[in-house]
Input
Amino acid sequence: MSMNQARFGLMGIFLGSLALQLGAFFLISEKMWPDDLLTLVLKLLGIYSVQLSVVLGGIFAQPKAPLAAPPAGLTWTALILATLWNLLLVWQSISFTLRPQASLGDLLKYLDEIASASSFLVVGVLAFFFGKGTEVITSTR
Amino acid sequence: MAHHHLFSIICTGALAVALSVFQNHLGSGIQSNSELRAKQVHVKSVVKVFLAKDTPGYSIAYEYDFPHRRSVYIKGFGTVSAKGSFRYLTADKQLEFRDSPDGEVLAIIPLQETVIVAARPALLSTPNVEDFPREFHSFIWASPKTLQEQAQLVVNKYFLFAPNSDCDKDVAHLKTTFMPLQLKGVSASVTAQVALLFSFPCAPKTAQYSFEVHALVMEGRTHSDTFRPTRDPDILRSADNFVQNLLAQMNAGQATKQ
Output
């Protein structure tokens, strides 16, 4: 798998999870007070802003020259770790929306604590794939 | 000198005997008083709760019987029949029975927890009197039973209530915790709850007197934690029906609507 494929794969996981949760919250917007919905959306955007700013920053700052492909095992590990981190959040968010009655306070507390406590799962991955770990292939003619 | 010494010994001995007899008599008096109290008041349960975020209190249930009396005054609750049983929330640390509000003390029972709650005690808050709307239902009370007794019989089926017989401008209050309302014709995502405030004269001068029932209706959402005052006509109608039904139960031969 090339570096670009790995990068877009990771971006897809983060953006897809964010979109899935936002969509679920908007679908049940009538079950919440408007300001509670706003609090929830802001919380989620706040959590994802760190990861997505690194991902998007890495992609937009990508050099024109092709990047060195990462080891295959490393790419799959990165994708699994990113999926795992997102599943921790998506699972609870979707479960919240499906319950007939649920506590918003509990969900906010969960998102806050789990997102920060489990960030070790993705910090290294993002640093490697979107930061200094990327190498440009120098052409030798 | 020897006679004087002997006289002192006899006097001291007599005094000691007299004191001992008096002490025994006093002791048996205290014992019989506490036995009497035990027979008169039976505290069935005392459970620690929170009446507000940082205000501890108790949910108590007790029965009492003071023979040869028509009524007794229970501090914080008001004047009631001489025999009965009650269940309510209180911030007091003891039950105090008197023959009238300023009269002789009949019994004082310290409240000791009968159930120790391992976790943090439940929050059973009641709204402040000022939070209730000014609009009210007015009823006439005309019954040998006191309003508090009848109200607790009916109200306890739905709520816990916190009496407050401390008179404010000659009016006593009895307020309840919130209870979920059954709603009709309203979206399933909408919830509602209601709390009631009974206001009645502290010392009614006649057998018949009017009392007021204020209903505080709050609207919520299934996925939000907060409830807010509502103006939704469907919710207010449901609350009104609930109050009418409750008062009809109290009414059963006890009160008539104005």
About this structure: Chain B is about 25% helix and 40% strand. Chain B touches chain A at residues 187, 189, 191, 221-226, 228 (CB under 8 Å). Residues 39-125 of chain B form one domain. Residues 2-40 of chain B form the longest helix (39 residues).
